[in-house]
Write a sequence for this structure.
């Protein structure tokens, strides 16, 4: 495919310009700064692709194509981070087929059979790149999602000492097994640190309370009991109540209240005192 | 060496050391029951602040001791469990520790007093009508 | 019997760069305490948190007591492994006892032969990331691991 390589080499800047023009069409929302960066990366891709066609017969094998593949993956990762959709990214790569194809039609004086062979090699190469791009795109997105998940997990859930012997822990977000473990650990440590006798666990901000979450809550209540403390769960929505009863979840060991306000009243009742009372130990 | 048991009024107090052998736990059970039987106390507070491990064996012996004390007419309270120990016990399974608990020794003594009172006073005093 | 929360984390595969942190012979009750301390020390050295240290010390207590009760003794090895992404502790407890006739039963809560409480293996199963049991009359090896990212 030396001929194809030659043509690409001679028209490098033309190909790149046409490509960038398409990029603006396919991804109108892209930032100018990231467009600049993409221009550099696309330039490198064209160079590497040219080198590959110059060197071999274009069967998609050998170290030269490996280098092209890596460059495509880099571009794809950049697109994913810049918030381009998978469709935009794939369209971007695939548009090289049209651009280079038009170029071939215009520039070559080769026979029809030769032209056909060049176009086939070009199509095969770019198709392959599109696939790699897609895989790399998904990989990058997954990496981002994983990182965000970890960041969310690391967001400390605060345990606030709101009264002598009472702490409040408002839970916000989805509770999975890993997070539930973490919450339990924080709650128990806070109970010990603040010498709290009662923890109010407010679940108003938890979007879904199913049997799995209920199991975690039950475990937390049991662990707190072992420390000699009580847990009051507040903010159980009507939806959650309906689900828990229908799933036949045993919540008998748990003190639950609809609102934080009712939970606080219950905490004072358990401590055997009124908020206006002088502070002293009980329970 | 046996774990010492102290008496404060009518409550027995004992504090478990960090490293406790199975034999020491069994000895403690025997000693505590003997003191309750002798009518020297109504309740037992076992402080485990120092214990950094409570495995299933120790959990069982402690729970059983509490049940035995109850059968003999007394009350037993476990006090001062470390958060990490509580977490581990809960993860191992439900109901590993089947006894009353308190935050610390002070809370344990208060709880024994309250439980004895709610039961209608000391077990060696007969209310006279 | 193998349990693995994630397939790439099996404690049973031969580990690269594994270091033996401690070996404790289990002959008397006090050796259980020594094994517990050794595992806690290894976990602390790897930077594991208090709760993980407690989980490890607890399962070492369970396994070594099993070895002492059912086989009259054995050995506990504490192995550590540090990779670029992960910190890993593997506990191996080996004995020359009669073996576990019913591993599945032993893992189910409450099962016991020989007068013990039978919660030991089930507890290990719940507290650790993975566990493998090789058992036959004359030799039983329980290997269990805990892995945390760095």
């Amino acid at each position: 495919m030396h001929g194809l390589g030659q043509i690409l080499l001679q028209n490098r800047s033309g190909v790149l310009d046409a490509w960038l023009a398409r990029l603006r069409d396919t991804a109108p929302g892209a930032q100018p700064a990231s467009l600049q960066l993409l221009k550099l990366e696309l330039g490198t891709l064209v160079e590497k692709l040219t080198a590959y066609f110059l060197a071999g017969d274009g069967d998609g094998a050998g170290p030269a194509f490996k280098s092209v593949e890596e460059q495509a993956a880099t571009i794809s990762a950049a697109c994913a981070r810049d918030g381009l959709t998978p469709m935009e990214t794939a369209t971007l790569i695939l548009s090289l087929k049209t651009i280079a194809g038009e170029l071939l039609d215009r520039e070559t004086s080769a026979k029809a059979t030769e032209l056909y062979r060049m176009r086939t090699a070009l199509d095969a190469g770019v198709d392959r790149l599109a696939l790699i791009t897609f895989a790399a795109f998904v990989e990058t997105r997954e990496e981002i999602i994983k990182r965000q998940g970890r960041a969310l997990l690391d967001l400390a859930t605060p345990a606030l000492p709101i009264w002598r012997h009472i702490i409040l822990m408002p839970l916000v977000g989805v509770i999975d097994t890993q997070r539930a473990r973490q919450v339990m650990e924080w709650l128990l440590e806070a109970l010990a640190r603040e010498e709290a006798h009662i923890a109010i666990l407010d679940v108003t901000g938890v979007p879904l309370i199913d049997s799995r979450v209920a199991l975690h809550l039950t475990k937390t209540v049991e662990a707190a009991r072992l420390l000699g403390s009580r847990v009051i769960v507040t903010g159980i929505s009507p939806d959650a109540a309906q689900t828990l009863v229908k799933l036949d979840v045993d919540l008998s060991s748990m003190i639950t209240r609809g609102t934080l306000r009712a939970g606080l009243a219950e905490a004072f009742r358990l401590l055997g005192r009124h908020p206006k009372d002088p502070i002293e130990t009980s329970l | 060496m046996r774990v010492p048991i102290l008496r404060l009024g009518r409550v027995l107090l004992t504090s478990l050391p960090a490293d406790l052998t199975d034999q020491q736990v069994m000895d403690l059970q025997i000693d505590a029951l003997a003191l309750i039987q002798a009518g020297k106390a109504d309740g037992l507070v076992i402080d485990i602040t120092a214990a950094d491990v409570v495995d299933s064996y120790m959990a069982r012996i402690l729970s059983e001791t509490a049940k035995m004390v109850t059968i003999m007419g007394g009350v037993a309270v476990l006090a001062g469990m470390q958060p990490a120990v509580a977490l581990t016990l809960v993860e191992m399974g439900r109901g590993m520790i089947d006894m009353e608990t308190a935050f610390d020794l002070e809370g344990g003594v208060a709880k024994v007093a309250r439980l004895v009172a709610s039961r209608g006073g000391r077990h060696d005093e007969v209310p006279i009508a | 019997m193998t349990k693995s929360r994630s397939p790439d984390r099996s404690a049973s595969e031969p580990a690269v760069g594994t270091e033996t942190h401690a070996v404790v012979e289990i002959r008397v009750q006090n050796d259980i305490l020594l094994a517990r301390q050794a595992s806690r020390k290894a976990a602390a050295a790897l930077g594991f948190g208090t709760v993980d240290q407690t989980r490890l010390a607890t399962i070492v207590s369970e396994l070594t007591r099993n070895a002492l009760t059912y086989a009259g003794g054995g050995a506990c090895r504490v192995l550590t492994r540090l990779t670029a992404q992960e910190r890993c502790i593997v506990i191996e407890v080996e004995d020359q006892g009669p073996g576990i006739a019913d591993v599945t039963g032993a893992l189910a809560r409450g099962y016991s032969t020989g007068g013990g409480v039978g919660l030991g293996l089930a507890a290990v199963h719940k507290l650790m990331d993975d566990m493998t049991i090789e058992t036959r009359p004359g030799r039983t090896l329980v290997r269990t691991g805990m892995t945390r990212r760095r």
Remarks:
- Residues 2-154 of chain A form a domain with the Globin-like fold (CATH 1.10.490).
